[in-house]
Amino acid sequence: MDLRSESSCARCRFKSKAAAVLSEEELHMLGKACVEVSVNRGDAFFRQGTPSGHVVYLKEGLARIHKKGPRNRDQILKIACSGTYLGIQTILGDVVNQYSASALTRAVACYIRVGEFRLLIQKNGDFANELIDYICREELSHFNRLVSHWQKQLTGRLAETLLYFAEEIFRAQEYPMLLTRQELASMVGGTRESVSRAMKEFVDSGIIGMNKKEIRILKPELIKKLADSG
DNA sequence: GCATTAACCACAG
DNA sequence: CTGTGGTTAATGC
Questions:
Q1: Distance, Å, A178 CA → C11 C1'
Q2: A200 touches strand C (CB under 7 A)
Q3: Is residue A85 located within the same domain as residue A198?
Q4: Does A180 contact strand C, using a CB cutoff of 7 Å?
Q5: Which positions in strand C are less than 7 Å from the protein's CB atoms?
Q6: Residues A128 and A218 placed together within one structural domain of the fold
Q7: Final residue of a structural domain among A122, A146, A170
Q8: The domain containing residue A81 runs over which residues?
Q9: Which residues of A90-128 are buried (b: 16+ CB within 10 A; e: fewer)?
Q10: Is residue A198 scored above 60 in pLDDT?
Q11: Which residue in A5, A93, A163, A202 is deepest, having the highest Cβ count within 10 Å?
């Protein structure tokens, strides 16, 4: 992990939607509470079970949010895009991280001390509002994922996940698969073997194209139908 | 019963 | 790390 100079949040090119409503003075305070780091693919931003003292603002890059369950297996809960905060859930009650976050690509992130972050929420209603807005949207999307995980079978869940990457993460019909089969399986809720097989079926039926790690959605209508019907 | 789905296991690139 | 094949258990007509 690479430490960088003290950040100037006022002039940040990647300011979050929430930080955009902060005053000059508040941004200065944010800057004081903030350290910018640059990390490599695979590096952890924070780990489940370790104390949390910061909120992480993901400035550039992608992250995976994952959590170990009772059988000590890691499940990927979601992919976080740049411009979002990681670990806000932990700032109120718990002082121990309930899940892990790690970089899926090279990434730049700002570690913001929890104390100051909370102070900004208390002081600035617009800031708080933006955050709540974000948290609400996230929760709704988690509800959706949870329900589909319960009701769809593997093929549908995989189709949905491939679409999730295309639509939410990359906003493109073609994108690099950054996850290993194992990780993709842990996100879809299946085994590496089942995911491999289902993926092959998608390719064989011409729904997606795959060369190397590149995925291309060839028949959006069909894959949507699969994702919807399960 | 018979078919489908998906996990588990083993083995090979 | 991946893909494949065989086996097995559960679930649904």
A1: 34
A2: yes
A3: no
A4: yes
A5: 1-6
A6: no
A7: A146
A8: 2-146
A9: bbeeeeebebbbbbbeebbbbbbbbebbeebbeebeebe
A10: yes
A11: A202
